[in-house]
Amino acid sequence: MKRLFPLLPALVLLFGCKQPNPHSVTPAFYYWKQSWDTTRATQAAIRQLPATKLYIKLFDLAPVPGQGPLPVAVLNTRAPLPENLEIVPVVFLMNEIWAKPDTALPSKVANLVADLCSNIPAARIREIQVDCDWTQTTKAAYFSFLEQIRRQPFFKNRQLSATVRLYQLKYADRAGIPPVDRGLLMCYNMGNMRQAGRHNSILDIATLQSYLGTHTISRYSLPLDVALPLFEWQILFRQGTVYEGIVRQVKLDDNSVFAETGDGLYTVKKDTLLEGYSLRTNDVIRREFVDIATLKQAARLLARQLPPENRTVIYYHLDSLILRNYPLNELQEIIRILN
30, 151, 212, 226: which could join 317 in a potential S-S bond, CB 3.0 to 4.6 Å? Predict the structure, then answer.
């Protein structure tokens, strides 16, 4: 008769070791323009990434003097939304609207969201997202709004998510945690864009590390999806020091106007009127852009703390011109890092 006892160690290992829970990462894009229109490049990006969710901003809610919060920049759909994609409607709420709370606001917002989504099959909308840069002083009004809007008919039986900035993550004890089903961690716009000099306010690895620490994500009580930046901007500083704002469509490769001084800084060589902007000698334009290597570094930092669970990784944002700078195979690699 064969002895069975030698099998015991193997059985203990087989049944005693906890198997890792299977999980997956869903690739997605944000669409943040006021008019929905597609190009071959954006269609290819959706198909080849492949993205299975599309987060589309429907409107902003802004304070209007004498009238209270009103919707602005309402989405205009010039073309049909992509088929076979889950659509996540997004509403951006300016933090200033909480100065005078409106008890009817949740129903007004919910009704407008429902109206703008009336042509989308209900089964394709499983989640609705609210984006607000709330603070310690506005959290009570904002969180109350979230609690009320999720009881509105269009929001029932759908997940409600809210964006979470890095400082809201790190200082959750003061900022509070929104009463929603999921958070969306925004891993961009983490620096002071008004500060002159050689830095990147969109995404800086040292700044990201300072917010994340070693256990910040794992201690946060909401499950988190992640958003990473695919965008750039150019910021004008008068005489190199005074913040003037974002400038658009200025070609920095014009050597007759600009002298590149490194680290994304371009000094104006002569007084010039360019694309409607009055540029003066010694003004400085800082071009901020996040390259693939930096995105991968950020993904690795996040992956150290993110628990093994299903999540969405969203690229901000879907734009044919910007996508030229980001090969799809590299974006796919970042998704794998975060899996």
Answer: 30
- The single residue listed with the structure tokens 């979230």 is 146
With a CB cutoff of 8 Å and minimum separation 6, the contacts of 53 are 26, 27, 28, 29, 85, 86, 87, 88, 312, 314
One DSSP character per residue, 276-337 reads TEEE-TT-EEEEEE--HHHHHHHHHHHHHHS-SS-EEEEEE---HHHHTTS-HHHHHHHHHH
Run of H or E including 60? strand 53-64
Q: What CATH number was assigned to the domain covering residues 23-231+291-337?
A: 3.20.20.80
Torsion of CA 24, 302, 319, 129, to 10 degrees: 70
User: Six-digit token pair at 150?
Assistant: 């999720």
The Cα–Cα gap between 169 and 68 comes to 29
pLDDT of residue 21: 56
Where do the H-state alpha helices sit in the chain? 8-16, 40-48, 105-116, 139-149, 166-170, 172-175, 205-212, 216-219, 292-305, 320-323, 328-337
3-class DSSP state for residue 218?
helix
pLDDT along the chain (339 residues), means of 10: 48 48 89 91 94 98 94 90 94 96 95 96 97 98 98 98 98 98 98 95 97 96 98 97 95 95 96 95 97 98 96 97 95 97
Do residues 109 and 117 touch, judged by C-beta distance below 8 A? no
| Residues 222, 210 contacting (CB under 8 angstroms) | no
Output the pLDDT for position 116. Answer: 96
pLDDT at 11: 43
- Whether residue 200 contacts residue 189, with contact meaning beta carbons closer than 8 Å, is answered with no
Domain boundaries, the chain: 23-231+291-337, 232-289
Answer whether 183's CB lies under 8 Å from 223's CB: yes
